[in-house]
Amino acid sequence: MRRIVLVRIALVMAILLSTAWFAVTRSTALFAQEVEPEQVIPARVALVHAAPFAAGNARVSVFFDDLLIDNSFDFGDVITYLNVPPGTYRVRIFVGSFSSIPTGVTPALDVPAVTVEANTDYTVAAVGGSNDFPLELLPLVDRLPTTTPPGSAEGQVRVVHAAPFARGLPATAVDVVPDAGGAPIASNVRYRDATPFLTLPSGTPIDVEARFAGTNVVLIDPDAFTLAPGQRLSVFAIGDGTNQPVRALVVPAELRNAQVRLVHAAPFASGPATATVTLNDTVVTNALTFGLITPYSNVPAGIYRVRIFAGASATGTPVFDGLAVFLPQTNYTAVAIGRNTTTYPIAVLLLTDDPTRPPLGQARLRIVHAAPFAPTVEANQVHIVSTTGGPPLVTGLDYAEVAGYLTVPALTPFNLRLVSALTPGTPLLNLPPLTFADGQVVTAIAVGDVTNQEPNLLVLEDLTLTRVFLPFAVR
Length: 475
What we know:
Blueprint: E1 4-7, E2 43-50, E3 60-64, E4 67-73, E5 78-84, E6 87-95, E7 109-116, E8 121-127, E9 136-143, E10 154-162, E11 174-178, E12 186-189, E13 198-201, E14 205-206, E15 208-212, E16 218-220, E17 225-226, E18 232-238, E19 247-252, E20 257-265, E21 275-279, E22 282-288, E23 297-300, E24 302-310, E25 320-326, E26 331-337, E27 347-353, E28 362-370, E29 382-386, E30 394-397, E31 402-409, E32 416-420, E33 427-430, E34 441-447, E35 456-461, E36 467-471, E37 473-474
Parallel strand pairs: 2-8, 10-18, 20-26, 28-34
Antiparallel strand pairs: 1-27, 2-5, 3-4, 3-6, 6-7, 8-9, 10-13, 11-12, 11-15, 14-17, 15-16, 18-19, 20-23, 21-22, 21-24, 24-25, 26-27, 28-31, 29-30, 29-32, 32-33, 33-37, 34-35, 35-36
Protein backbone atom coordinates (compact mmCIF):
# COMPACT_ATOMS: atom_id res chain seq x y z
CA MET A 1 0.00 0.00 0.00
CA ARG A 2 2.98 2.25 0.10
CA ARG A 3 3.28 3.32 -3.48
CA ILE A 4 3.70 6.13 -5.98
CA VAL A 5 1.75 5.79 -9.20
CA LEU A 6 1.81 7.96 -12.31
CA VAL A 7 -1.67 7.45 -13.72
CA ARG A 8 -1.50 7.71 -17.49
CA ILE A 9 -4.14 8.04 -20.19
CA ALA A 10 -3.31 4.63 -21.62
CA LEU A 11 -4.65 2.96 -18.51
CA VAL A 12 -8.21 3.78 -19.57
CA MET A 13 -7.95 1.16 -22.27
CA ALA A 14 -7.25 -1.43 -19.59
CA ILE A 15 -10.64 -1.18 -17.88
CA LEU A 16 -13.92 0.19 -19.22
CA LEU A 17 -15.69 1.80 -16.32
CA SER A 18 -19.42 1.86 -15.91
CA THR A 19 -21.87 4.72 -15.51
CA ALA A 20 -21.16 7.27 -12.79
CA TRP A 21 -22.45 6.48 -9.34
CA PHE A 22 -20.90 9.23 -7.26
CA ALA A 23 -22.45 12.60 -6.56
CA VAL A 24 -21.53 15.57 -4.44
CA THR A 25 -24.14 15.83 -1.72
CA ARG A 26 -22.59 18.37 0.65
CA SER A 27 -20.64 21.50 -0.14
CA THR A 28 -18.22 20.68 2.68
CA ALA A 29 -17.24 17.33 1.20
CA LEU A 30 -15.18 16.77 -1.91
CA PHE A 31 -16.69 13.35 -2.60
CA ALA A 32 -19.74 11.54 -1.27
CA GLN A 33 -21.47 8.35 -2.40
CA GLU A 34 -25.06 8.45 -3.60
CA VAL A 35 -26.30 5.68 -5.90
CA GLU A 36 -29.04 6.84 -8.23
CA PRO A 37 -31.74 4.34 -9.32
CA GLU A 38 -30.67 4.29 -12.96
CA GLN A 39 -26.98 3.92 -12.24
CA VAL A 40 -24.98 0.70 -12.18
CA ILE A 41 -23.98 -0.37 -8.68
CA PRO A 42 -20.37 -1.56 -8.64
CA ALA A 43 -19.13 -4.91 -7.46
CA ARG A 44 -17.28 -4.94 -4.15
CA VAL A 45 -14.10 -7.03 -4.03
CA ALA A 46 -11.98 -7.84 -0.97
CA LEU A 47 -8.49 -9.32 -1.39
CA VAL A 48 -6.65 -11.69 0.96
CA HIS A 49 -3.01 -12.83 0.75
CA ALA A 50 -3.18 -16.37 2.11
CA ALA A 51 -0.50 -17.97 -0.09
CA PRO A 52 2.43 -19.29 2.04
CA PHE A 53 4.75 -19.79 -0.90
CA ALA A 54 7.73 -18.28 0.96
CA ALA A 55 8.93 -17.38 4.41
CA GLY A 56 9.06 -13.79 5.60
CA ASN A 57 6.56 -11.30 4.23
CA ALA A 58 6.10 -13.16 0.88
CA ARG A 59 5.41 -9.75 -0.69
CA VAL A 60 3.59 -9.57 -4.02
CA SER A 61 2.23 -6.95 -6.43
CA VAL A 62 -1.34 -7.35 -7.65
CA PHE A 63 -2.63 -6.04 -10.99
CA PHE A 64 -6.13 -6.01 -12.45
CA ASP A 65 -5.47 -5.85 -16.18
CA ASP A 66 -2.59 -3.33 -16.27
CA LEU A 67 -3.79 -1.38 -13.24
CA LEU A 68 -1.79 -1.69 -10.03
CA ILE A 69 -3.93 -2.54 -7.03
CA ASP A 70 -1.18 -2.97 -4.43
CA ASN A 71 2.58 -3.44 -4.67
CA SER A 72 3.22 -4.22 -1.00
CA PHE A 73 0.72 -7.01 -0.40
CA ASP A 74 2.23 -9.26 2.27
CA PHE A 75 1.20 -12.65 3.59
CA GLY A 76 -1.75 -12.19 5.93
CA ASP A 77 -2.67 -8.78 4.50
CA VAL A 78 -6.31 -7.97 3.79
CA ILE A 79 -7.72 -5.29 1.52
CA THR A 80 -11.33 -4.78 2.56
CA TYR A 81 -13.92 -4.12 -0.10
CA LEU A 82 -13.00 -2.06 -3.13
CA ASN A 83 -15.74 -0.68 -5.38
CA VAL A 84 -14.91 -2.27 -8.74
CA PRO A 85 -16.74 -1.67 -12.03
CA PRO A 86 -18.54 -4.83 -13.19
CA GLY A 87 -16.63 -6.70 -15.85
CA THR A 88 -13.95 -9.28 -16.55
CA TYR A 89 -10.37 -8.68 -15.49
CA ARG A 90 -7.03 -10.32 -16.03
CA VAL A 91 -5.47 -10.76 -12.59
CA ARG A 92 -1.68 -11.02 -12.37
CA ILE A 93 0.40 -11.45 -9.24
CA PHE A 94 4.15 -10.84 -9.27
CA VAL A 95 6.52 -11.75 -6.46
CA GLY A 96 8.13 -8.53 -5.24
CA SER A 97 7.17 -4.88 -5.40
CA PHE A 98 6.46 -3.33 -8.82
CA SER A 99 4.74 -0.05 -9.67
CA SER A 100 3.87 -1.23 -13.18
CA ILE A 101 3.82 -4.52 -15.09
CA PRO A 102 7.50 -5.56 -15.08
CA THR A 103 9.14 -6.30 -18.41
CA GLY A 104 10.63 -9.76 -18.72
CA VAL A 105 9.23 -11.01 -15.41
CA THR A 106 6.87 -13.98 -15.39
CA PRO A 107 3.97 -13.55 -12.97
CA ALA A 108 3.70 -16.08 -10.19
CA LEU A 109 -0.01 -16.24 -10.99
CA ASP A 110 -1.80 -15.16 -14.16
CA VAL A 111 -5.57 -15.64 -14.28
CA PRO A 112 -6.88 -14.42 -17.65
CA ALA A 113 -10.55 -13.91 -16.73
CA VAL A 114 -12.02 -13.04 -13.33
CA THR A 115 -15.58 -11.75 -13.71
CA VAL A 116 -17.38 -9.63 -11.12
CA GLU A 117 -21.06 -8.75 -11.38
CA ALA A 118 -22.85 -5.55 -10.42
CA ASN A 119 -24.17 -5.23 -6.86
CA THR A 120 -22.34 -8.40 -5.76
CA ASP A 121 -19.70 -8.78 -3.06
CA TYR A 122 -16.65 -11.02 -3.41
CA THR A 123 -13.60 -12.07 -1.44
CA VAL A 124 -10.73 -13.21 -3.64
CA ALA A 125 -7.87 -14.96 -1.87
CA ALA A 126 -4.46 -15.92 -3.21
CA VAL A 127 -3.84 -19.40 -1.80
CA GLY A 128 -1.45 -22.34 -2.14
CA GLY A 129 2.16 -22.46 -3.18
CA SER A 130 3.14 -25.04 -0.55
CA ASN A 131 2.91 -28.80 0.08
CA ASP A 132 2.29 -29.49 -3.61
CA PHE A 133 -0.77 -27.25 -3.76
CA PRO A 134 -0.45 -24.79 -6.66
CA LEU A 135 -0.55 -21.04 -6.24
CA GLU A 136 -4.04 -20.03 -7.34
CA LEU A 137 -6.99 -17.73 -6.69
CA LEU A 138 -9.85 -18.76 -4.45
CA PRO A 139 -12.83 -16.56 -5.41
CA LEU A 140 -15.74 -16.49 -2.97
CA VAL A 141 -19.15 -14.88 -3.39
CA ASP A 142 -20.04 -13.03 -0.18
CA ARG A 143 -23.33 -11.45 -1.16
CA LEU A 144 -25.73 -11.53 -4.10
CA PRO A 145 -28.34 -8.82 -4.81
CA THR A 146 -30.93 -11.24 -3.41
CA THR A 147 -29.04 -12.06 -0.20
CA THR A 148 -30.99 -11.29 2.97
CA PRO A 149 -28.84 -9.37 5.47
CA PRO A 150 -28.65 -10.49 9.09
CA GLY A 151 -31.27 -9.16 11.48
CA SER A 152 -30.82 -6.33 13.94
CA ALA A 153 -29.70 -8.71 16.71
CA GLU A 154 -27.72 -11.05 14.48
CA GLY A 155 -24.40 -11.36 12.71
CA GLN A 156 -22.97 -13.87 10.27
CA VAL A 157 -19.68 -15.72 10.13
CA ARG A 158 -18.10 -18.04 7.57
CA VAL A 159 -15.06 -20.33 7.87
CA VAL A 160 -12.64 -20.51 4.94
CA HIS A 161 -9.91 -23.17 4.90
CA ALA A 162 -6.91 -21.66 3.11
CA ALA A 163 -4.14 -23.45 5.05
CA PRO A 164 -2.23 -26.05 2.96
CA PHE A 165 -0.47 -27.50 6.02
CA ALA A 166 -0.30 -31.09 4.72
CA ARG A 167 0.00 -32.92 1.42
CA GLY A 168 -3.24 -34.18 -0.05
CA LEU A 169 -6.73 -32.89 0.65
CA PRO A 170 -7.73 -35.63 3.15
CA ALA A 171 -4.80 -34.73 5.41
CA THR A 172 -5.93 -31.10 5.60
CA ALA A 173 -9.42 -31.90 6.98
CA VAL A 174 -10.46 -30.12 10.20
CA ASP A 175 -13.53 -29.84 12.39
CA VAL A 176 -14.64 -26.49 13.76
CA VAL A 177 -15.73 -27.08 17.33
CA PRO A 178 -16.81 -24.84 20.23
CA ASP A 179 -14.02 -24.44 22.79
CA ALA A 180 -16.41 -25.59 25.50
CA GLY A 181 -17.07 -28.81 23.59
CA GLY A 182 -20.20 -30.13 21.96
CA ALA A 183 -21.14 -30.90 18.39
CA PRO A 184 -18.93 -29.48 15.62
CA ILE A 185 -20.12 -26.33 13.91
CA ALA A 186 -18.56 -27.64 10.70
CA SER A 187 -17.05 -31.07 10.03
CA ASN A 188 -14.41 -32.38 7.65
CA VAL A 189 -13.56 -28.94 6.24
CA ARG A 190 -10.71 -29.39 3.77
CA TYR A 191 -8.28 -27.01 2.13
CA ARG A 192 -10.13 -24.62 -0.23
CA ASP A 193 -13.49 -25.37 1.42
CA ALA A 194 -15.68 -22.54 2.68
CA THR A 195 -18.72 -22.98 4.87
CA PRO A 196 -21.91 -21.01 4.23
CA PHE A 197 -22.39 -17.89 6.32
CA LEU A 198 -23.78 -18.99 9.67
CA THR A 199 -26.25 -16.66 11.39
CA LEU A 200 -25.46 -16.19 15.09
CA PRO A 201 -26.65 -13.84 17.84
CA SER A 202 -24.77 -10.55 17.97
CA GLY A 203 -23.20 -9.39 21.21
CA THR A 204 -22.38 -12.93 22.36
CA PRO A 205 -18.73 -14.07 22.52
CA ILE A 206 -17.93 -16.79 19.98
CA ASP A 207 -15.09 -19.09 20.98
CA VAL A 208 -14.24 -21.92 18.60
CA GLU A 209 -11.19 -23.92 17.60
CA ALA A 210 -10.10 -25.99 14.62
CA ARG A 211 -9.19 -29.60 15.37
CA PHE A 212 -7.78 -32.24 13.09
CA ALA A 213 -10.87 -33.98 11.73
CA GLY A 214 -12.23 -36.74 13.97
CA THR A 215 -9.79 -35.99 16.81
CA ASN A 216 -9.41 -33.74 19.84
CA VAL A 217 -6.05 -32.43 18.64
CA VAL A 218 -6.26 -28.65 18.29
CA LEU A 219 -4.71 -27.05 15.21
CA ILE A 220 -5.86 -23.43 15.66
CA ASP A 221 -7.38 -21.84 18.75
CA PRO A 222 -8.14 -18.21 17.86
CA ASP A 223 -9.20 -15.59 20.35
CA ALA A 224 -12.91 -15.31 21.03
CA PHE A 225 -14.76 -12.64 19.05
CA THR A 226 -18.15 -10.96 19.18
CA LEU A 227 -20.32 -10.09 16.21
CA ALA A 228 -21.79 -6.61 16.05
CA PRO A 229 -25.42 -6.31 14.90
CA GLY A 230 -25.52 -6.86 11.14
CA GLN A 231 -21.81 -7.68 10.92
CA ARG A 232 -20.51 -10.32 8.53
CA LEU A 233 -17.07 -11.89 9.00
CA SER A 234 -15.00 -14.52 7.25
CA VAL A 235 -12.55 -16.42 9.45
CA PHE A 236 -9.71 -17.79 7.32
CA ALA A 237 -7.34 -20.56 8.33
CA ILE A 238 -4.00 -19.63 6.74
CA GLY A 239 -0.39 -20.84 6.80
CA ASP A 240 1.39 -24.05 5.93
CA GLY A 241 3.31 -24.72 9.16
CA THR A 242 6.65 -24.39 7.34
CA ASN A 243 6.98 -21.06 5.58
CA GLN A 244 4.19 -19.46 7.58
CA PRO A 245 2.62 -20.48 10.90
CA VAL A 246 -0.90 -21.86 10.79
CA ARG A 247 -3.28 -19.32 12.28
CA ALA A 248 -6.66 -17.64 11.96
CA LEU A 249 -7.24 -14.44 9.98
CA VAL A 250 -10.48 -12.49 10.42
CA VAL A 251 -11.70 -10.68 7.31
CA PRO A 252 -14.52 -8.16 7.83
CA ALA A 253 -17.07 -7.72 5.05
CA GLU A 254 -17.09 -3.94 4.97
CA LEU A 255 -16.36 -0.98 2.72
CA ARG A 256 -13.94 1.53 4.23
CA ASN A 257 -12.87 4.96 3.04
CA ALA A 258 -9.66 6.37 1.67
CA GLN A 259 -8.64 9.98 2.33
CA VAL A 260 -7.91 11.94 -0.85
CA ARG A 261 -6.79 15.52 -1.50
CA LEU A 262 -6.15 17.22 -4.84
CA VAL A 263 -3.30 19.52 -5.85
CA HIS A 264 -3.30 21.61 -9.04
CA ALA A 265 0.34 21.75 -10.19
CA ALA A 266 -0.27 21.73 -13.96
CA PRO A 267 0.83 25.03 -15.59
CA PHE A 268 -1.12 24.45 -18.80
CA ALA A 269 -2.29 28.08 -18.95
CA SER A 270 -1.57 31.45 -17.43
CA GLY A 271 -3.78 33.04 -14.80
CA PRO A 272 -5.88 30.70 -12.63
CA ALA A 273 -5.64 27.82 -15.14
CA THR A 274 -8.98 26.56 -13.79
CA ALA A 275 -9.61 22.83 -14.07
CA THR A 276 -12.64 20.60 -13.57
CA VAL A 277 -12.13 17.15 -12.06
CA THR A 278 -14.55 14.24 -12.37
CA LEU A 279 -14.62 10.82 -10.74
CA ASN A 280 -16.58 8.18 -12.62
CA ASP A 281 -18.06 11.00 -14.76
CA THR A 282 -19.38 13.01 -11.80
CA VAL A 283 -17.96 16.50 -11.21
CA VAL A 284 -16.26 16.74 -7.83
CA THR A 285 -14.82 20.23 -8.36
CA ASN A 286 -15.04 22.76 -11.20
CA ALA A 287 -12.89 25.40 -9.49
CA LEU A 288 -9.47 23.81 -9.08
CA THR A 289 -7.03 26.63 -9.81
CA PHE A 290 -3.26 26.49 -10.15
CA GLY A 291 -1.60 26.15 -6.75
CA LEU A 292 -4.81 25.13 -4.99
CA ILE A 293 -4.72 22.27 -2.49
CA THR A 294 -7.99 20.77 -1.29
CA PRO A 295 -8.45 19.28 2.18
CA TYR A 296 -8.58 15.54 2.56
CA SER A 297 -12.02 14.07 1.88
CA ASN A 298 -13.48 10.62 2.45
CA VAL A 299 -13.69 8.54 -0.72
CA PRO A 300 -15.03 4.97 -0.62
CA ALA A 301 -12.17 2.64 -1.52
CA GLY A 302 -12.18 1.45 -5.11
CA ILE A 303 -11.20 1.90 -8.75
CA TYR A 304 -12.08 5.27 -10.28
CA ARG A 305 -12.00 6.83 -13.69
CA VAL A 306 -10.40 10.25 -13.27
CA ARG A 307 -10.88 12.99 -15.86
CA ILE A 308 -9.53 16.52 -15.88
CA PHE A 309 -11.00 19.23 -18.12
CA ALA A 310 -9.44 22.61 -18.79
CA GLY A 311 -11.95 25.23 -17.67
CA ALA A 312 -14.87 25.39 -15.26
CA SER A 313 -17.03 22.65 -16.79
CA ALA A 314 -16.72 19.00 -17.80
CA THR A 315 -17.21 19.67 -21.51
CA GLY A 316 -15.13 18.94 -24.57
CA THR A 317 -12.17 16.57 -24.62
CA PRO A 318 -10.53 16.00 -21.24
CA VAL A 319 -6.87 16.91 -20.96
CA PHE A 320 -6.42 13.83 -18.80
CA ASP A 321 -8.36 10.55 -18.76
CA GLY A 322 -7.08 7.70 -16.62
CA LEU A 323 -7.70 5.31 -13.75
CA ALA A 324 -6.76 5.46 -10.09
CA VAL A 325 -7.04 3.02 -7.20
CA PHE A 326 -7.78 4.26 -3.68
CA LEU A 327 -7.18 1.60 -1.04
CA PRO A 328 -9.08 1.59 2.26
CA GLN A 329 -7.71 3.50 5.25
CA THR A 330 -4.99 5.08 3.13
CA ASN A 331 -4.21 8.77 2.59
CA TYR A 332 -3.54 10.02 -0.95
CA THR A 333 -2.44 13.24 -2.60
CA ALA A 334 -3.44 13.39 -6.27
CA VAL A 335 -1.24 15.94 -8.04
CA ALA A 336 -2.21 17.19 -11.51
CA ILE A 337 1.01 17.92 -13.43
CA GLY A 338 2.11 18.87 -16.95
CA ARG A 339 1.68 21.65 -19.53
CA ASN A 340 -0.66 19.80 -21.91
CA THR A 341 2.09 19.49 -24.51
CA THR A 342 3.70 16.50 -26.19
CA THR A 343 6.73 16.83 -23.94
CA TYR A 344 4.76 17.45 -20.77
CA PRO A 345 1.27 15.92 -21.12
CA ILE A 346 -1.22 16.35 -18.32
CA ALA A 347 -0.92 13.46 -15.86
CA VAL A 348 -1.88 12.66 -12.31
CA LEU A 349 0.84 11.79 -9.83
CA LEU A 350 -0.87 9.72 -7.14
CA LEU A 351 1.11 9.86 -3.91
CA THR A 352 0.50 7.58 -0.95
CA ASP A 353 0.88 9.75 2.14
CA ASP A 354 2.50 8.49 5.31
CA PRO A 355 1.64 10.68 8.32
CA THR A 356 3.80 8.67 10.75
CA ARG A 357 5.42 11.00 13.26
CA PRO A 358 9.24 11.16 13.19
CA PRO A 359 11.45 10.69 16.28
CA LEU A 360 11.69 13.50 18.81
CA GLY A 361 13.53 16.52 17.46
CA GLN A 362 13.04 15.45 13.85
CA ALA A 363 10.74 16.20 10.94
CA ARG A 364 9.94 14.21 7.79
CA LEU A 365 10.15 15.83 4.36
CA ARG A 366 9.00 14.51 0.99
CA ILE A 367 9.90 16.46 -2.16
CA VAL A 368 7.96 16.27 -5.44
CA HIS A 369 9.34 17.65 -8.71
CA ALA A 370 6.31 18.94 -10.66
CA ALA A 371 7.93 21.98 -12.33
CA PRO A 372 8.34 21.54 -16.12
CA PHE A 373 10.61 24.54 -16.58
CA ALA A 374 13.08 23.03 -19.09
CA PRO A 375 12.47 22.40 -22.82
CA THR A 376 13.11 18.66 -22.41
CA VAL A 377 12.36 16.18 -19.66
CA GLU A 378 16.04 15.23 -19.49
CA ALA A 379 17.07 18.83 -18.87
CA ASN A 380 14.56 19.00 -16.02
CA GLN A 381 16.59 16.71 -13.75
CA VAL A 382 17.78 18.57 -10.67
CA HIS A 383 19.84 18.27 -7.53
CA ILE A 384 18.63 19.90 -4.32
CA VAL A 385 21.60 21.41 -2.51
CA SER A 386 22.27 23.70 0.43
CA THR A 387 23.28 27.26 -0.32
CA THR A 388 25.77 27.01 2.55
CA GLY A 389 27.57 23.93 1.21
CA GLY A 390 27.63 20.33 2.33
CA PRO A 391 26.33 17.21 0.61
CA PRO A 392 23.20 17.54 -1.56
CA LEU A 393 19.90 16.77 0.11
CA VAL A 394 18.65 15.03 -3.07
CA THR A 395 20.52 14.14 -6.27
CA GLY A 396 19.17 13.30 -9.73
CA LEU A 397 15.52 14.16 -9.11
CA ASP A 398 13.64 13.86 -12.39
CA TYR A 399 10.46 15.64 -13.38
CA ALA A 400 7.39 13.80 -11.99
CA GLU A 401 9.63 12.01 -9.49
CA VAL A 402 9.33 11.95 -5.71
CA ALA A 403 12.08 11.93 -3.08
CA GLY A 404 11.29 10.99 0.46
CA TYR A 405 10.26 10.72 3.08
CA LEU A 406 13.56 12.17 4.39
CA THR A 407 14.17 12.60 8.11
CA VAL A 408 15.58 16.07 8.78
CA PRO A 409 16.37 18.04 11.95
CA ALA A 410 13.53 20.14 13.34
CA LEU A 411 13.93 23.83 14.23
CA THR A 412 16.87 24.15 11.83
CA PRO A 413 16.58 26.55 8.87
CA PHE A 414 17.17 24.96 5.49
CA ASN A 415 18.43 27.24 2.73
CA LEU A 416 18.10 25.14 -0.40
CA ARG A 417 18.26 25.63 -4.13
CA LEU A 418 17.61 23.55 -7.22
CA VAL A 419 20.52 23.15 -9.60
CA SER A 420 20.58 21.49 -12.99
CA ALA A 421 21.84 17.93 -12.96
CA LEU A 422 23.43 18.58 -16.38
CA THR A 423 25.25 21.69 -15.18
CA PRO A 424 25.42 21.46 -11.37
CA GLY A 425 27.06 24.86 -11.14
CA THR A 426 23.99 26.52 -12.61
CA PRO A 427 21.35 27.43 -10.02
CA LEU A 428 17.81 27.17 -11.31
CA LEU A 429 15.62 28.05 -8.37
CA ASN A 430 16.26 29.29 -4.84
CA LEU A 431 13.83 27.97 -2.27
CA PRO A 432 12.81 30.23 0.60
CA PRO A 433 14.19 29.25 4.00
CA LEU A 434 12.35 26.27 5.42
CA THR A 435 12.16 25.51 9.14
CA PHE A 436 10.23 22.49 10.35
CA ALA A 437 8.56 22.10 13.71
CA ASP A 438 9.30 19.13 15.89
CA GLY A 439 7.24 16.18 14.63
CA GLN A 440 6.10 17.75 11.35
CA VAL A 441 5.49 15.59 8.29
CA VAL A 442 5.62 17.70 5.15
CA THR A 443 5.30 17.27 1.40
CA ALA A 444 6.95 20.03 -0.65
CA ILE A 445 5.97 20.28 -4.33
CA ALA A 446 8.01 22.35 -6.78
CA VAL A 447 5.60 23.81 -9.37
CA GLY A 448 5.55 26.29 -12.24
CA ASP A 449 7.08 26.49 -15.68
CA VAL A 450 8.27 30.16 -15.79
CA THR A 451 6.18 30.78 -18.96
CA ASN A 452 2.58 30.26 -17.82
CA GLN A 453 3.13 30.11 -14.07
CA GLU A 454 5.96 31.47 -11.93
CA PRO A 455 7.91 28.78 -10.10
CA ASN A 456 6.63 28.28 -6.58
CA LEU A 457 6.80 25.85 -3.71
CA LEU A 458 3.66 24.26 -2.30
CA VAL A 459 4.11 22.94 1.22
CA LEU A 460 1.53 20.44 2.48
CA GLU A 461 1.19 19.30 6.07
CA ASP A 462 0.54 15.57 5.96
CA LEU A 463 -0.61 15.53 9.58
CA THR A 464 -2.44 18.81 10.17
CA LEU A 465 -3.54 19.43 6.55
CA THR A 466 -2.51 23.09 6.80
CA ARG A 467 -1.29 24.59 3.52
CA VAL A 468 1.57 27.05 3.17
CA PHE A 469 2.29 28.70 -0.20
CA LEU A 470 5.83 30.03 -0.53
CA PRO A 471 7.42 31.73 -3.55
CA PHE A 472 10.63 30.76 -5.25
CA ALA A 473 13.26 33.24 -6.24
CA VAL A 474 14.22 32.65 -9.88
CA ARG A 475 17.92 32.66 -10.72
